[in-house]
Design brief:
Pfam families: DNA_pol3_gamma3 (PF12169), DNAX_ATPase_lid (PF22608). With 176 residues, the protein is mainly α. The protein contains ten helices and no strands.
């Protein structure tokens, strides 16, 4: 993607390319298609991180981290507020759950192999992982994956996202 953008003399935020690469799941054609869309929506001919989030439907990493932090603190008011913000901004709840899976993986990896964590918010991820064992994040991965499967079958995936928040908080306090 960098080669194409440099060849076309289009400025870009390297973090935007990471979001696009993640959304394309390793498919070069998909990545180039998303990149083309990002160029089309860019306001000044430069691809920004916001352009990448808009095109891919991904939530901002800060929202994901804030959501997980609210689960770990069992702050349902904050968790539901973040869900409301995500949904009101038109983000897909399924995509948010998929993004959470990547974040949970990074929370596990940061402890043993920080060089494998590819995120602009690595310091926040590191801080978030410090107070909890990998076992908690593994359970949250399982819970999120189960919720995601149910979300895909539901006409109300937002409801399962809210249930994920409640169960995730209960899980952290060992109530489930």
């Amino acid at each position: 993607m960098e080669f194409v953008l440099k060849d076309q003399k289009i400025n870009f935020d390297p973090q935007a390319l990471k979001v696009i690469a993640n959304a394309s799941a390793g498919g070069l054609r998909d990545a180039l298609s998303i990149l083309d869309q990002a160029v089309a929506v860019s306001k000044d001919g430069s691809i920004t991180l916001d352009d990448a989030y808009e095109i891919t439907g991904s939530s901002r990493i800060d929202q994901q981290i804030d959501f997980v932090a609210s689960l770990l603190k069992t702050d349902m008011r904050q968790a539901f507020s973040i869900i409301s913000d995500i949904l009101s901004s038109g983000k897909d709840p399924l995509k948010f759950a998929q993004d959470l899976l990547v974040l949970f993986k990074n929370l596990i990896l940061i402890k043993s192999s920080p060089e494998l964590v590819n995120s602009q918010s690595i310091d926040r991820i590191k801080k978030l992982s410090e107070d909890h064992s990998n076992r908690v994040f593994e359970k949250l991965i399982d819970l999120t994956a189960d919720s995601l499967a149910k979300m895909k079958q539901s006409v109300r995936p937002d409801l399962y996202l809210e249930i994920l928040a409640v169960k995730g908080s209960e899980l952290v306090t060992d109530r489930i």
